[in-house]
Amino acid sequence: MPAFNIRFALFLPLLALPLPVSATAQPATLLQVQNLGKDAVALNGPWQFHLGDAPSFAAPALDDSAGNNGWEQITADAPWGAQGHRSYVGYAWYRKHISITPAPGVPPDWSLLIPHAEDVYAIYWNGRLILTHGTFPPRPQFAWNEAGRVFHLGPLGNGVLAIRVYKYPLGSYDNGIEGGLSAPPILGTPHAIQREEAANDYTRLRGSQFSFGTYSLEALVMLLTFLLWWRDRSQAVLLSTALFCFSQVAIFLIAGHTPIHFRLIQTLLEPLQATMDVSLMVLLLWLLDLRSNPALSRWTGIFAMANIVLQLADGATCLLDWSNPHLTLFCQWSDAICTVLYTITELWPVVLVLFALRNRLDAPRWLVAGFAFLAQLAFFLPVTFSQGSRFTHWTLGNTLRLPLFAIAGNSFDAQTLSEFGLLLSIIYAVFSYSRQALKRKQVIERELRSAQELLQVLIPEALPSLPGYALTSSYQPAQEVGGDFFQIIPVSAGSYVIALGDVSGKGLRAAMAVSLIVGALRTLVEADPSPSAILAGLNRRLYNRLQGGFATCLVLQLDAHGRCTIANAGHPVPFLNGSEVALTGSLPLGILESTNYEESQLELQIDDFLVLYSDGLLEARNAQGEIFSFERLAALVADRPSADQALRSASAFGQEDDITVLTLTRIAVDKEPTSELITPVLVPA
User: Fold this and answer.
1) Which helix (H) or strand (E) holds 286?
2) Residue 165 in contact with residue 114, Cβ under 8 Å?
3) Into which CATH architecture does domain 30-203 fall?
């Protein structure tokens, strides 16, 4: 056989083998919309899709066949991230070839409803820009969670609808399946689109009934607790409740119902979330009776401060332009680190609940503990498993957010239910706490009232007339009840014992010590009226009975002829005619079991002016921190004021402690003695 024939024979079997077919582009599908009239139509089916950006992508004559120059087909009912382009950010284009035939009698005037798209987009018809929603880079701007947008297209026939979309860089919580259209655009007459938009709004609002009701309740609780706290600002639990409810309501309004810039909303949400987290920590400290634990209180403060700083830092990061390629990586890493760290701090309420389990809690507090535990876990777990999910592809975070059931279009997931239970339990617990606090306050007020009445009995309603003296006295406690005391006790005809002193501390404890001292004074004067014996007897009775405190006291015994004996137990020395009297100092009462008190003698002449006072007069402090001082006191007494004038001068300067002032002016024996006493007025209950 010739060589040619042999080669031909060998080639013949190859002719039977299938030949490779070159890939051919798939042309775009033409969507024919027939008899478009009163009803709107969803632009379903395949759309031509291309990643990237070019001005020619809007041109109607562009060859956008799938497989040609990077064009492909996807649907508009799911984001591009769920259709093979996971975690893609930047520009992409959608194109749809449409033939529109209006129904008989319907003018060819059309509108388009874009239900939702992420994040910035523009609509083109046959290459003509219709409208842009948001602002494209270099400074992108777009609204948060906008429900939908209507565009008026005008009279259209056959052509190409093109949508240019820009997706903003992803945050730490994004799962990567976002981007572009998530529901097909809807085409129809302006009236039909208006009906479609109204139906969507109705569905959305119907599904938000429970949320609106919950946050309306929170707004009411916020207002009531704030007003109650304003009336009694010592109730930190009321302020914490008001702040907790305020942050919840503000987050709801801003995140879901305020069409403002995405980055601004993110920046606002972070401090609001921090307010909610910190106020919940403070609420749990109060409601679960954990404030008495210093370590828990200290760590709560540390976690609260860390939460605030981290969320503010995260919010500041959101203000930066993530679309800038020089900032994108920095912003994403900062967001991830801040989010992970402050999410850890949000577990602290769970720790507080675990510590509270060791306490004996009543029913309201058990409810708060239980729902706080569930709410924080329901919040923490989805957020935690959503972090970096575009890399891990974990779906547990989304699974935990799935609704458990729905009622009348309102979906209920674990977080919604636990947070609603937490709100109700907080309301119940705060009401119970406030009622108990009110009862405790009423008991304390009754005790203070009793102490005031006791002091009113101990302080004479009028001073006796001391022959040979003009006497003035004034007393003003720093609180409802005080620790200053003075007594004028007659010894014999024309002779009196005057005692003026001060118990360390203020308030009810000091007042009880005063009652002990005044009772002992009268007994001691009857036994021995000498000042040294009186102070020694008081010291014995007060030793180990003032719980670490002490009392100062000045005792005088004087007669109508100016003879005066003085002994001092650590009390400020009196002024005589503008100068301090030279007295031997001794320890205050109640410090040592046995102390000797030396006596000094004075001869008061006619018109001599003696001033006795408690240290509250010296220690009056103004707004600049200056004390009244000896210099000011010396200048004051040099003008020979009445006791009330001296007290008013110090009080106007800035009272911080109880003040008692007693003045004695020596007059002739044949003159009529005078006395003036000014004390606090006890207002009837």
Assistant:
1) helix 262-287
2) no
3) Sandwich (2.60)
pLDDT at 685: 41
**What pLDDT, on a 0 to 100 scale, did the predictor assign at position 22?**
38
**Matching residue, tokens 């503010």:** 312
Look up residue 433 and give its amino acid: Y
Q: Do domains 30-203 and 459-678 have the same CATH topology?
A: no
What span, in angstroms and rounded, lies between the C-alpha atoms of 274 and 316?
A: 14
Q: How far apart are CA 291 and CA 287, in angstroms?
A: 9
Are the CB atoms for 618 and 439 separated by under 8 Å? no
Peptide linkage before 658 cis (omega within 30 of 0): no
Tell me how far CA of residue 459 lies from CA of 449, 462, 480, 673, in angstroms. Answer: 15, 9, 15, 20
Start-to-end CA distance of the chain, whole Å, equals: 137
What is the assigned CATH class of domain 207-440?
Answer: mainly alpha
The CATH architecture that domain 459-678 belongs to is 4-Layer Sandwich (3.60)
Cα(59)–Cα(139) distance, rounded to whole angstroms?
Answer: 26
Q: Which CA distances in Å does 167 have to 180, 285, 330, 591, 626?
A: 7, 43, 18, 78, 63
Instruction: Quote the distance between the C-alpha of residue 70 and its chain's center.
Output: 53
CA 284 – CA 150 distance, rounded (Å): 47
> What is the Cα–Cα distance from 528 to 678, expressed in whole angstroms?
29
- Inter-axis angle of helices 363-386 and 328-345, to 10 degrees? 160
Domain ranges of the chain: 30-203, 207-440, 459-678
Burial class (CB in 10 A: 0-12, 13-18, 19+), 85: buried
Asked if 335 and 314 count as a contact pair (C-beta separation under 8 A), the reply is: yes
% of the chain with per-residue pLDDT over 70: 91
pLDDT tens figures, 405-415 = 999 889 999 99
Residue 307 has pLDDT above 90, yes or no: yes
Q: Answer yes or no: is pLDDT of 127 > 90.
A: yes
User: Quick count: other Cβ atoms within 10 Å of Cβ 35?
Assistant: 11
User: Which tens digits make up the pLDDT trace of 31-40?
Assistant: 888 888 888 9
Q: Give residue-wise pLDDT tens across range 366-401.
A: 998 999 999 988 888 888 888 888 888 888 888 888
pLDDT tens-digit series, residues 433-477: 888 777 777 776 676 666 656 555 556 566 788 889 999 999 887
Band (612; pLDDT cuts 50, 70, 90): very high
Q: Would you call 150 exposed, middle or buried from its count of C-beta atoms within 10 A (0-12, 13-18, 19+)? A: middle
CB atoms within 10 A of CB 364: 19
* Residues in Cβ contact with 13 at an 8 Å cutoff, skipping those fewer than 6 apart: none
